[in-house]
Amino acid sequence: SWLLIPVLSAQTDFKTEINIGLSQGAGISRVVFYPPVDQGLVVGYTGGLIMRVITEPNLGIQLEANYLKRGWTEKFILSGNYERNQEIITVPVMTHIFFGKETRTRLQFVSGPYIAYLLSDSEIMTVGDTLEYKDYYGKSIARKVEFGFSGGVAVSFRTKLGIFELQGKYNHGMTNLFKPGTEEFIYLGSR
Length: 191
Fold this sequence. Notes:
It contains no helices and 9 strands. The strands form 2 sheets. It has a 7-stranded antiparallel sheet with strand order 1-3-4-5-6-7-8, with no helix packed on it. Strands 2-9 form a two-stranded antiparallel sheet. The radius of gyration is 22 Å and the shape is elongated.
């Protein structure tokens, strides 16, 4: 007797896509301290290169190299203010998932780890009362290298001129900016 096994074939009409482009925009940043520090958001420039390789239907990998300006601000109850500004290079490696294969518009999701390198770090400080002076004022960042996770959602529009995207992305650093838990630094977290 013969045993018949059905053979499943993979989709043969799929074509690999390779997209290379530029990203430009603005980012909003702050740092999460534990215990919390009352602070404001900083708006900074972000831009970079993107390379996306789609190797399966609705799935691919996205590599980026980005330049970001980020930081945080603090306003004091009595007088003065504090601002910390940083310039960094990030390199995220993300999974790229999209919907809308046969359409000119695609809904996209990206998620994955990143590594970052601190290029510069500066402070602007006008503290009127020493009671409002915090442990990290005047301190250098503990590490120039940071690890974290990125995730985002985008809508892309495919035209004869190229692909245009509107994207929102969230980065969460897993590396503390300052060395936690020392006698001179009371904060257990600064990400």
